[in-house]
Structures are given as structure tokens and as C-alpha cells.
Amino acid sequence: MTSENSASSHSKLEFDVDLTCGSCASKVRASLERLGVGHVHVDIPGQSVVVETDLPFSTVQKAIQSTGKKAVLKGYGASSEARGSLAAAVSEISGPSGVVGVVRFSDAPERGCIIDGTIDGLDATVRHRLQIHELGDLSNGCDSTGDIFNPLSSETSRQKDQRVYGALGEISVDPSGRSVFRKTNDTVRVPDIIGRSLVVCAQPTQSDTGYLRLACGIIARASGLFQNPKRICACSGATVWDEASSAGRLEQS
């Protein structure tokens, strides 16, 4: 079952932020407090900001960047870490129609999975939904991702509650074609979905019963909280700030 946020579904978000002084740290803290984020830890020497919130990660990142600082999401996890690390995953989705986005998954103790994402390029006049599909095969685009993932597909489970494991529900889209969402799901577990695919589907008209596959991406393991100390890419030598600047230029183009 997928639901909207509740007070108990807070997450911790870890950002690399190019902090250089107490003044810029104060600006970041003030910007986050205006959003209602009550738990903010700023580490100037470590150039790190950790927040506890039930807001989508992109909303928090935008608030930090509004102060003129570059911010890169580095870790994502539950607000109360259980013993050992909780699993996290990410899917970078794209499609031929120009739909692009990032969706993150994080297991939470006793609360299932938190699903947090931002998707652009959608048509605000039609209905959209998210689905986890069986295969991480994008050789033929979204058509090769198989059926919706449903290990609960026995006749008994269907008769009992009609749930489909990979059905993550509908997402709302604003007039600009952007969807920003954060949901909790009490069925999905991150280890079960890594290597599969996330698909964004659209219902062309209200009278249509089928959904078209618009965009998709492989669900890959991601860093949880404090699991990614790197600030320099081993393959390119670029720092996280270089990569953040490149991403910003792409968004503006």
C-alpha cells in the first residue's frame, strides 16, 4: 500500500555544500528553517549539511541552492537508523518524449519504503503513475522491462487484498509538467527491487483503460547516510562542485 507523507515518515538527507564561513552556514540554516525544517546540522569544516524532514529531497536541495551555495545530495536514509545500514536505491529515468527525473527509495524501520522523486516533462492534462517492472533491461526502451513486478501474484494473495507489489500509485503533475512527490509504501523493500526498472506510465484519455510507458530507468543501489565520503570522481577527476555546475547548466539549457 502506498500513502502520502505522515509525521512518522521523516528521512535524513545528507548534502555536500560548498560552505566556507559562518555567514553562509547561517544563510543555509535560515533558508531551511523557512521551509519548516526543524532538525538541521551544519558542518562547515566538513562542508556538510544533514537535515531531518518529510519534504522531497529536491525541495530541500533547492532551498540550500537559493542561498547561492552548490548542494549535492550525498546520502539518504531513515530518520532513525536501525542496527546496520538500511538499504537505499535510485533510478534515473528518461524517455524519448523528453520525460526525465530522479526517484530515490529508502527502507525505513517499521515503515516500509520511502519513495521520493522529481520528474519533469510530463503532460499535466493526463493521469500518470509509477510502476516497478520485473526486468532491468532497457535494450528496447521501456518495452523490454517486462511486466509489473508482483511476487505476491498468487491467487490467494490476490483474493485477499488485490495488492500489486510494483504498483506505486499515481503522481500529481503541476502546470509546468513537473511532479515532485514523496510517498511511503508498506510493501516494497529495497533489496527486492535493485536491478529491476522503474517505469512512468500515462493514461492518454479518461476513457482509455491502458497506460503508455513514457520513461524508465534501472533501479540501482545508492549510498545511504554517511556511506559516501568521496568528493572527487575517480573516472574523470571532477569534484562534486564541478558536477553540480554541469548539472545546473544542463537544467538551464
Automatic annotation (TrEMBL):
GO terms for molecular function: copper ion binding. GO terms for biological process: superoxide metabolic process. It holds the Pfam family Sod_Cu. Gene3D superfamilies: 3.30.70.100, Superoxide dismutase, copper/zinc binding domain. Its cofactor is Cu(2+). Residues 10-72 form the HMA domain. InterPro entries: HMA_dom (IPR006121), HMA_dom_sf (IPR036163), SOD-like_Cu/Zn_dom_sf (IPR036423), SOD_Cu/Zn_/chaperone (IPR024134), SOD_Cu_Zn_dom (IPR001424). In the C-terminal section; belongs to the Cu-Zn superoxide dismutase family. This is Superoxide dismutase copper chaperone.
